[in-house]
Each structure stands twice: as structure tokens, then as C-alpha cells.
Amino acid sequence: MRLHTGTRASLLLLVYAVQKVAGVNFTQCLNDIVENAIATQNLAGLLNGDGDPVSNVSDATAISYSLCVSACGAGEEPFQWPVFSQDFSSWLLPNLALVSQLPFGAQYRLDNLMSVVLTVGSPVLAGYSLFITLLNSRWIHHRFRQAVDYPNSHFAVSILHSLHQVPLRLHFDHAHFPSLVVLPENDTWWKYLSELVDYTHTWSIASAASIAWVVVAFILTLANSPWSDYENTQAFTVGSMWLWLTPIVVGWLQLSPKCDFDRLQSAYVRADQYARTGIAHTHMGMPPASTRRALTITAMEEDSDVMSPDELLTPPVFNYSRSLRWASTADTMFLAFKAASDKAKSRMPVQFGSEWVESDDMKTIHPSNRRGSSQDITTYCAQPDGAQHSHWAPGMFTRMFVASCVSLALQWGTTGAATVVAYFTPTTGIGCRSLSYLIYAGISTLIWMMFLISSILAHYSAAYSHRPPLSARVILELSHWLRRMGKLWAIANFIWGVMACVFQYSSFYDTCFCNSSVIGRGDAAYNVLIVTAAQAAVARTAWAGAIVLACGSASMFIGLMSLLLDTLP
Fold first, then answer.
1. Cα dist. 240→89, 266, 420, 558 in Å?
2. Quick check: helix, strand or coil at residue 554?
3. What is the pLDDT of residue 490?
4. Cα separation, 518 vs 515, whole angstroms
5. Residues forming a β-bridge with 289
């Protein structure tokens, strides 16, 4: 019995409905649509690679979005566990394993977990914390090297470099910190603390193996590039999206942050027994041990000068919250050493009215020139009359700007490369895949902005920590709100970053909606089912540009780190 045209069309639609339940096969769907078009001579919805209607069935390589939904169904292609497990273990798992090589060391495990969430949730924030730490260390080392020539100044620079991960505080009351700077009896304290906190957290077999695993996986991704199969782009897009992690891990391994809370606390307690304060008369012998610490590395959240609880957390991703206060403290320490150094160069002893005693060694200062009463010691380290010490360290905003630019370039260079490949893969345009990468990078940037503004507002409020006016209290509350919201967004973006990759491997994006780039094309959306040579050439060009963009931004970050590290103490 011969079926008329309408009956055959109905049977084909029934077949499509069964396929929709079992899963969509777009290749088979196109074949069925072509057969139906030949049988019915209905070319509606059949398009060429540019989305234009065709006059001949043989020219059809794409279908309109409406035809795709009606004929193929709105569902996705069938989930294939072998493909998912292979892709997940080959491309995403190495990056998740590399996260374990980030520096931790917080007092509580939950804080370590939050440091992972912040790093993955906002690579911009992670890169910023890393680079501002490097720039601050270079800045204070340069200032000491050029302007200070006084005993223990090199130990002071080394200690400052090692204590980026703690809430550093100085206490000048009763000549506490000036005594550390001036008294020769405190030379042992400086030397001992410098040695104790200058331990190494750097390369290990585990870290090298994890980095090598990621690098090899990315090289294999490039080998499996569109030069041979342009459609296999999801491996590169995932690898490029996560490529920022390797420079961050390598950077921290090079910088070797001292972030083990228990070890730092133990080192400080052991060194503190050697600290001495000033005395009223030099003939009384050894100065008494200090009952209050002149330099502290711990604080409590309820302390009046702790503006952000993140200051107390030692994982270095939280350095964003300490950078302004650390720079201000380091500048105060520098000014105290510089004042003492300038007076020593002018051959002025600490004790007022006494004569300068020459040392047998021209490179050292005789101990008697460094002793005096508490008032003498305080005056010796004080700034010249009329000199004002700013709450904001010199050049701080310039360093913040440079660190921001470098971290933004890393984030958008790697994630932008993934977006470019997804955008130019037929069907071109903003689709589910490219939009997911833009959302990840956009939220990452938003989180960084919230934390950066929060740290600036907190540091501003710290200037009024004792009797804050209403404006300072309002600004501090805004800082707290931004910090809390930033962490909520970081948690959400952490989950989104992982799930975006899972969606790639699980065929979640293999639907008419996503494959037709409806988000970017709107009513003109269409689904390319057969890629033409011209489209393949465009895809290959985009791939080449994306490789340069991703590898270039990651290499630039590592290269800048390596160039600037040689000036650290």
C-alpha cells in the first residue's frame, strides 16, 4: 500500500518524538529532515552555513532553530558515560588536583577551604593577592636598601617579607618598638626571628608532578586541535578556562609565603624572649625583658584595630585584606630605621648630651652609641619636627593598579581564549558555552572588585579605630557587607566554574537551543549540522588566536613574576 505525503510526514514526526525521549541525534535528525524534504518538496527551515534559505536540498547544511526544536526535539544528545569519564579525568581532574598545591596553613580547616573557594571562585582576586604581595616586598626592600644603613635593617626587611600572611602591628608606647630598633641587646631578637620565620615553602615532587600533569594535559589538548578535528574544541576550552591556575601555583611556589599559623606563632614566641626595652640609665646593665611585645603578628577579631576578620587568616589569598595595613606598618618601620640611620650618619648617639664613641670597625656602630633612656630612644627614632606620617603608604595605589592589571590580564586572557573558541565554533555567536565562560570571568572580576573596595574602606576606617565618627562606622559596615557578599558570590562562582565543565562533558549543552546560539542570534538562530570548509577555516583561525591569547597571558604572568623576584630579600 502506498502512503500519501501527509501520512509519511506524520510517521517521520512520530520517529522524531521517539528520538526526543531516547536522546537527540542531530546527524540522524538532519538526514531524516532531508528525506522528508525530498519527499514533500518542503524546504522550509533548511539553511546553508550562513543561515540563508536554500533552493536545493543538497545545499542544506543547517536548520533553523524552530525546525530543530519541532523536528529533533528540545532535549540534549544522550549522555555517554565513557566519554564523560574520559574527558573529566583527562582535562578537568588534573586542574582540580593542582588546587591542592596552593598554600594553606590557616588555624582552622574551614578557613583553608574558604581559601580554595576564593581562589577558584575569583582567579582575579588570587592573582591580585599574589602580585600585590610581590610588589609590596620589592617596594620595602628598595626603600631600605637605598636609605637605611643601620644594624638589623636587613633582618627587618627579611622579617617583613616573611610576615605578609599575618596581621602585623607595631607599638611605640613606652619606647617598645624604638627599643627594638636601637638597643644592641635586641640584635639577637632580630637575627633569631629572621631565621625562624624564613623557612621554605617551595617546590616539591608532589607540586612538580601536579604542574607537569596539567601542562602535559594542555599540550595533548593542543595536539588534538582543530588542525585535525576542529569540532573537538571542548577539551581546549576547559583547559584554557583553568589555565590561570598554573601561573598562580607557580607564583606562590616561587614567592614561598610563610602561612603556617602554628609555626609562625611558635617562632615568634621563641624569639620574643630576647626582646628588651629601654632603661633610665645606661650604667644599670642589661635592659629588662619587654613585658609587652613591640611587634605583634597575632590579633583577635574583637580587637579595635582589626577592621576585617580576613586579616587574621594566614592563607595568602587573604593578603588582599592585609596589603594596605602591611604596607603602612612596613613604612612606619622604615621611617623608624631611617631616622636612626640618619642620626647615626651624623654621629649622634642615642643618649642626649653624650659623645660619639668610635668603633674599631668602621662598618659598625659602637654599642654605647645605641643605649639611652626610654625618652632618648623614642626621640632617636622619631621623625623630624613637622613631618607627617600618612595612613596610606607611598605608592600603594600605583602598586594596586599594576597588580590589578596583571591579574585581570591573566583571568581574561585564559577565559577569553575559551570564549573565543566557543564563539567561533559553528554555529558562531554567543551561545551556552561561550556565555558560561563569560559569566565565570565576569563574576570573578566582580568578586575581586568587591574585596578590593572592602579592603580600602576597612583601611580607611582603621584610622578611626579608637573613637570612630559616624561616617567611619558606616564605611566599615559597608566594608563588611562587601566582604560577605563577595564570599557568597565566590561560593556560587566556584560551583559554576566546575559545573560549566561538567555540562561540557555530559552533553548538557548539546541541545537545539545551545547549538543554535539562540542567546546571541535571537530569532535568526540556526543549528549548523554539517560544517563547510569556509567555516572550518574560520574555526581554525580562531583556535590559533586563542592559543596565543591563553598561552601568552599565562606566560606573561609567570615571566613578570620571575623578573621581579630577583629584587626580593
1. 16, 41, 11, 16
2. helix
3. 97
4. 8
5. 276
Cβ–Cβ under 8 Å, residues 349 and 190? no
Is the separation of the CB atoms in 362 and 297 below 8 Å? no
Answer for the pair 372, 380: CB distance below 8 angstroms, yes or no: yes
pTM of the model: 0.89
The DSSP secondary-structure symbol of 482 reads: H
Closest to 432 measured CA to CA, from 442, 441, 422: 422
Contact, 530 vs 54, CB < 8 A?
A: no
C-alpha distances out from residue 109 to 106, 112, 116, 536, Å: 7, 5, 11, 49
The SS3 assignment for 63 reads strand
- What's the rounded Cα separation, in Å, for the pair 205 and 554? 22
Reduced 3-state DSSP string for 297-360: CCCCCCCCCCCCHHHHCCCHHHHHHHHHHHHHHHHHHHHHHHHHHHHHHCCCCCCCCCCCCCCC
The angle formed by the CA atoms of residues 191, 193 and 195, to the nearest 5 degrees, is: 70
**Grid-cell match 599540550, residue found:** 219
Q: Beta strands of 127-194 (E only): which ranges?
A: 169-170
Paired with 527 in beta bridges are 63
Residue 206: CB partners within 8 Å, gap ≥ 6?
A: 101
Tell me the C-alpha distance between 454 and 451, whole Å: 5
Burial of 387 (0-12, 13-18, 19+ CB in 10 A): exposed
Beta bridge partners of 296: 169
pLDDT of residue 299: 66
What are the pLDDT digits (tens) for 182-232?
999 888 888 888 888 887 766 778 788 888 888 888 887 777 665 545 446
Place of cell 606598618: 329
Half-sphere exposure of 52 (CA within 13 A, CB side): 5
The CA distance from 550 to 561, in Å, is 17
DSSP label of 69: I
Q: Which strand ranges, in their side-by-side order, compose the sheet holding 46-47?
A: 46-47, 62-64, 526-528
All three cell numbers of 545: 588566536
Q: Which DSSP symbol is given to 452?
A: H
User: Is the separation of the CB atoms in 195 and 271 below 8 Å?
Assistant: no
Q: Could you tell me where the beta strands, DSSP code E, fall in 201-320?
A: 295-296
Cβ-contact 290, 274 below 8 angstroms: no
Query: Nearest to residue 560, comparing CAs of 290, 150, 251, 257?
Result: 251
DSSP string for residues in 506-523: TTTT-BHHHHTTHHHHGG
For the chain, give the mean pLDDT: 83
**By CB neighbour count within 10 A (0-12 exposed, 13-18 middle, 19+ buried), where does 485 fall?**
middle
Give the closest residue to 320 by CA, choosing from 132, 521, 49.
132
Nearest to 65 by CA among 431, 537, 434: 431
Q: Which of 90-94, 228-232, 275-279 has the highest mean pLDDT?
A: 90-94
